[in-house]
Specification:
alpha/beta; 7-stranded mixed sheet; about 40% strand; elongated
Length: about 190
């Protein structure tokens, strides 16, 4: 009996020695928007972002283009505070909606988020790729649309570098959307606020 007890105690002490202390998960968002949406022009009453199914979780995704280009991974210790589509919608709301004129009218800006991932071209170099399709709608009628793909280099080859590059890509998307909407002004005369 004593022998079994000794074996049990030694076995359990071996398990306890192998317990790992896992690092805490770090949660990120896209930060505060920099700059302002141009006043005047097309009135946008609603911003809606719909994300691809693989972006419907808070996982921070990456791909090792140099080794396994067909495999999507997620960082073990880094997450978004919400799925990227929700973060992008809230970020665009904060940029676009405060600059809108009062009154009736206006269009809806519907964004299809197709891609957001950090792509490693080598163990020491990566970039974040953000791909969206933007649709400007008056009621259910499509007024105009455009696809955007924005890539920004990561300053470091890790999740923190990816977060900084994502913020830069989102900021660049906001600027590109503002230019596109302004260029679409004649097409979207139905969207003018009153």
């Amino acid at each position: 009996m004593r022998r079994w007890l000794l074996v049990l105690v030694l076995s359990l002490s071996g398990c306890v020695g192998q317990l790992r202390h896992e690092a805490p998960i770090v949660r990120h968002d896209f930060g505060d928007p920099a700059g302002r949406w141009p006043a005047g022009g097309i009135a946008i009453r609603q911003v809606k972002v719909e994300a691809a199914p693989w972006l419907d979780s808070p996982a921070q995704l990456y791909r090792l283009q140099y080794a396994t280009p067909l495999r999507r991974e997620s960082f073990a210790e880094s997450r978004w505070v919400a799925p990227p589509g929700e973060l992008l919608e809230r970020w665009l709301d904060r940029v676009i909606l405060p600059a809108q004129p009062g009154g009736a009218g206006g269009c809806r800006l519907v964004i299809m988020l197709d891609e957001l991932e950090q792509r490693f071209t080598s163990p020491t170099a990566s970039e974040v790729v953000l791909a969206v399709r933007a649709n400007l709608l008056q009621g259910k009628r499509l007024v105009t649309n455009k696809a955007f793909e924005i890539a920004r280099p990561a300053s470091t080859p890790d999740s923190a570098g990816g977060v900084r590059a994502t913020r830069a890509a989102v900021q660049a998307l906001g600027e590109a959307l503002a230019v596109w909407v302004e260029e679409s002004r004649q097409l979207a005369s139905a969207c003018a606020g009153s």
